[in-house]
Write a structure and sequence with these properties.
Elements (H helix, E strand, L loop, with lengths): L1 E7 L4 H11 L4 E8 L5 H8 L4 E3 L2 H5 L4 H9 L4 E4 L8 H6 L4 E5 L13 H10 L4 E8 L9 E8 L6 H26 L1
Parallel strand pairs: 1-2, 1-4, 2-3, 4-5
Antiparallel strand pairs: 5-6, 6-7
Bound molecules: 5-O-phosphono-beta-D-ribofuranosylamine (GRF).
């Protein structure tokens, strides 16, 4: 049984899906949610699902090395880190400590629409501005750069002519729900 720590900054629908998926047993379970925002809705979701969460200040989460964060992860015997709507850059010390064991979900088809500043509505707005007719999700390993690292899975959905960033985000969330936990599970079980 592998132990997962989820890093999340906001709403937490992906965090919830992953917690629920692995609460049924199987290869892993979510031991901890780490968040940088005390008022993030993901904290309420974690509490309702009985998963402990810790809020750490931004300075700690981006420091090199993030001493408190590393010891928290070790205390919870973390095997894999899942980034589920986490907006801060992962410190190099964490990438080094968890090589091939940090997984992110990006709400577009990388390598397009990735990189600094490409998060949340900004991504969907950029997809619409570019006139794309297809968007999707990219589930990938994390290395020292934003939205880089080996792709584990991509899935697509249409972009409709009358889409807004909100309507596209909602279609992308459906896709995330279908794929994220399963891809994480498959990756972990193959290791
Ligand atoms: C998701 O679209 C995810 O792909 C991206 O941030 C969003 C987070 O949504 N990284 P939620 O907080 O999981 O609801």
């Amino acid at each position: 049984m592998k132990n997962l720590a989820i890093f999340a900054s906001g709403n937490g629908s992906n965090a919830q899906n992953i917690i629920e998926h692995f609460s049924k047993g199987g290869t892993a379970r979510v031991k901890l949610v780490i968040c940088n925002k005390p008022d993030a809705y993901v904290l309420q979701r974690a509490a309702a699902l009985g998963v402990p969460s810790v809020v750490l200040p931004r300075q700690e989460l981006v420091s090199e090395p993030p001493v408190e964060l590393l010891s928290l992860l070790a205390e919870h015997s973390t095997d894999y880190i899942i980034l589920a709507g986490y907006l801060l850059k992962i410190p190099a010390a964490i990438v080094e400590a968890y090589p091939g064991r940090i997984i992110n979900i990006h709400p577009a088809l990388l390598p397009k629409f990735g990189g600094k500043g490409m998060y949340g509505k900004h991504v969907h707005q950029a997809v619409l501005d570019a006139g794309e007719t297809v968007s999707g999700i990219t589930i990938h390993l994390v290395d020292a750069h934003y939205d880089n690292g080996t792709y584990l899975h991509q899935a697509t959905c249409p972009v409709l002519p009358d889409d807004t960033p909100d309507s596209l985000a909602s279609r992308i969330h459906t896709l995330e729900k279908e794929h994220f936990a399963e891809v994480v599970e498959r990756y972990i079980s193959q290791k």
